[in-house]
Specification:
Blueprint lengths: L2 E3 L8 E6 L23 H15 L7 E2 L6 E4 L2 H4 L3 E2 L2 E4 L6 E5 L3 E7 L5 E6 L1 H6 L1 H8 L7 E5 L9 E2 L1 H10 L7 E3 L5 E3 L1 H11 L4 E4 L14 H4 L5 E7 L1
């Protein structure tokens, strides 16, 4: 399987990665390393891909979510919880060898950890979750002060390819006034939205200043990433973090 390691100064006991499209068994619109069960891919293929992921890269099977574009962050505080599939869009844990996984095809994945490698989180920050405060909710779970939290913005759609309507821009600006700087007006009365920029600004507001990543584009880099905006029906990349 192919993957992209997070390029951030996390503690040595914290590993974070994003899976890429190649190296799996899915075919057609889902070719080839699709890890999502909800996109109409053959379940047998998804199971094979997830099994391969666990075998080649993870210390244990990942904790998966049924993502609903919410602001809910689930705390995994015992092994039994890791076996349950929750309706949420974020995961937090202090457990070791417990990989936290979220899936995207343009939405923004956010990894968080503390400077000592004792706390980690993975967030699915689509525009609804980001605007609703999923980053806020995750930071509130950390025992470490925000100044000791390190963040990584994993591959998402870039501003130049993410066109939204005025209602999206207004929702962000009503929620977080600094968002206005991250919407570029277009001639068609729409805007280009910078999810990376908004997320970084929000993290900075809480005192999380060690923010990395944000250099990829799922829409443009088609050999590497699935993109709902580009393709419509497609697979999902996974973004996984664990502490050892």
């Amino acid at each position: 399987m192919a993957y992209l390691a997070a390029n951030w100064p996390a503690p040595k006991n914290v590993t974070a990665l994003s899976t890429l499209r190649s190296g799996g068994v899915s075919s057609g619109d889902f070719a080839s390393f699709n890890l999502a069960t909800h996109v109409n891919d053959l379940e047998t293929n998804v199971v094979k891909n997830r099994t391969q992921l666990t075998r080649e890269k993870l210390p244990n099977p990942a904790v998966w979510l049924n993502q609903t574009h919410s602001t809910d962050v689930v705390v995994i505080d015992c092994p039994q919880k890791a076996l349950q599939v929750a309706n949420a869009d974020g995961l937090y844990t202090k457990l070791v060898n417990t990989p936290l996984a979220i899936m995207t095809a343009d939405c923004l994945p956010v990894f968080l950890c503390d400077a000592n490698g004792q706390e980690i989180a993975a967030l699915h920050a689509g525009w609804r979750g980001l605007c609703g405060g999923i980053i806020d909710n995750a930071i509130a779970l950390f025992e470490a002060p925000p100044s000791d939290i390190v963040a990584y913005l994993a591959p998402a759609i870039s501003q130049s390819n993410f066109e939204v309507g005025k209602e999206v821009r207004d929702a962000f600006c009503d929620w977080f006034s600094l968002s206005e700087a991250y919407f570029k007006p277009q001639n068609n009365a729409k805007y280009l939205a910078d999810l990376y920029g908004i997320a970084k600004a929000r993290l900075n507001t809480f005192g999380v200043t060690h923010v990395f990543g944000g250099e990829h584009c799922t829409y443009r880099q088609s050999p590497l990433f699935y993109s709902y905006r580009r393709q419509g029906q497609c697979g999902r990349n996974a973004h996984i973090i664990w502490r050892s």
